[in-house]
Amino acid sequence: MAYTVIDLLDKIILIEEMAKDMYEEMGKKYGEDINIRTIVNVLVREEERHIKYYKDLKKECKDEESIDFHLYDKASFLFNQFKGNIIAPKISTKEELLNFAIDFERKNVAFLIDIRGRLVTSVNDSEKCMYRVLGKIIEEEQRHVDNIEKFVKSD
Question: What is the pLDDT of residues 118-150, one digit of tens each?
Fold first, then answer.
């Protein structure tokens, strides 16, 4: 079986689903504080939006060429490592929640940049759908970080 960018997108979507679940868990644990509940709801909606967008991106690469097995295997290992770190922390203030969200989302961006970099083995790879789609996802995740940071500065 050959692996394609669709397989990687499925893993990215799974990470977004896990992040959504993590934020929902935080909302259940700490949602008695209206500020925390509101922020969690925004974070959950953002993850839901990402999931939909990334599913739509899968349509762009239907007939994409396969990914080298060893590259996919390494990327898959890194995805599993990253998934193991998606754990809801104990928080007591909206500031702690926002700081956690910024840190988590920054790590997600760095992780995606790392994955994209590992999958590029030649100059021609930057022309492939895989590279373009991962670029769109990285841009989307960076906007997410930027929006949280803007909110923190305006608060």
Answer: 888 877 777 788 888 999 999 999 999 999 999
Cβ-proximal residues to 89 (8 Å cutoff; 6+ apart), any chain: 26, 96, 100
Cα–Cα–Cα angle for 38, 41, 42, nearest 5°?
Answer: 90
pLDDT tens-digit map of 55-65:
999 888 876 77
Every domain of the chain and the residues it spans: 5-154
Single out the residue of 74, 65, 60, 64 nearest to residue 11, CA to CA: 74
> Of 1.20.1260, 1.10.150, 1.10.10, 3.30.1330, which CATH number belongs to 5-154?
1.20.1260
